[in-house]
Amino acid sequence: MDLRLIEYFVAVVDHGGITRAAQALYVAQPSLSQAIRTLERQLGVDLFERTPRGLVLTPDGTAFAVPARQVLADLARAGAAVRDVGDLRAGRLEIAALAALAVDPLPGLTAALRTRHPALLVTVLDCDGPADVTARVRNGSAELGLTELPVDVGTLRTVELWTQETVLVLPADLATELPDPVPMHVVADLPVVVESGTPPAGRVAVQCAHRHAVWELVKHGAGVAFLPRAFAEECLDGVVVRSTAPPLHRRIGLLHRAGPRSPAARAFLDLARQAPASATNALPAGDSAAPS
C-alpha cells in the first residue's frame, strides 16, 4: 500500500474534506479524489460517504483512521531515529580492542567521542590478540578494531594511527637493583605478570584474568609488567616506570570492513586521526617504530 495514500486519507479527515486537504497538500482536487478512490479499492471498503454536504466517514473509515494515524506516526518516528543516528544524537558503536590498547589509548578516544556525542552508546569488546580483533570486525560483531600492526587483515581496511611506547612497570624494591633503562637481556630474567590471553613476554611468573589484578600484583612485588607509557605514568601509583634498551614500540591502527561506515564510526576515526601525539604519549604514524 502506498503510504502517500494513507497520508492523503488522514489529511482529508483532518481538514474536513477534499478542497481544504488539497490546498494543504498542494495537490489538485481531482488527483486527491482519485487517490482516495484508489485507497478504497485497495481496502475493498468505502471510507467516506459522499453526501451533498461533502464527505462523511463511514464506520469502516472511522476504524481505518486509527491505524492510519499510527502508521504515519511510526514512519515519522523512524525517520527521526534515522536522522538522529546520522546527526549522532543517537546510535551505537562496537569496538574490538586488544587488552593493552583498551587501557591506552581507547579510554581517551572514547571519552572524547562521548563528550562530543553524549547520546552514543559505545561497547568495547576485549580480544585475546590481533587475530581475534580481526575476526570480530570481519564477522560484524564489531564495526571497528583497535589493534597492534601489522596484522593479516585480508579484505579489511587499515588506518594506521601512531607508534606507542611500551615500558616496564616494576615494584619499587626491584627497580633499585636495575639500571635505567633496563637492557632486554636483563628483562628476560625478570618474573613477568601478564593478563590471561595475552602473548607471553619474558619469564611469565603470574597469569591472571583481571587487568587490575596485574597492576596490584606488580605493586606488591609479584613481578614486572609491560604497559603503555602514558597509562603507566599517569594512572599507576606505587610502581616504577622504566624504558627498555632498546626501547619497545608498537604500531597501532584501526580496522574496519570495506564499504560505508556508520556516522559513529566515522566520528571515532576522525578523532583518532586528529588526536595529538602528546595526548597518547605516542608518535604519529610513520615516525620511528622498532618492532616489539
What does this structure look like?
The structure is a single chain. This protein is α/β, with parallel strands linked by helices and 292 residues long. The protein has 13 helices and 14 strands. The strands form four sheets. Strands 3, 4, 5, 6, 10, 11, 13 and 14 form an eight-stranded mixed beta sheet that branches. A two-stranded antiparallel sheet has the order 1-2. A two-stranded parallel ribbon has the order 7-12. Residues 286-292 have low confidence and may be disordered.
**CATH domain class name of the largest domain:** Alpha Beta
What is the CATH-assigned architecture of the largest domain? 3-Layer(aba) Sandwich
User: From the helix content, strand content and strand pairing, which structural class follows?
Assistant: alpha/beta
- How many separate helices? 13
Number of separate domains: 3
The main β sheet shows up as:
8 strands, mixed
Give a quick summary of the entry.
By secondary structure, the chain is of the alpha/beta class.
Descriptive tags:
alpha/beta, D-Maltodextrin-Binding Protein, domain 2, 3 domains, 8-stranded mixed β-sheet, two-stranded antiparallel sheet, 13 helices, disordered C terminus
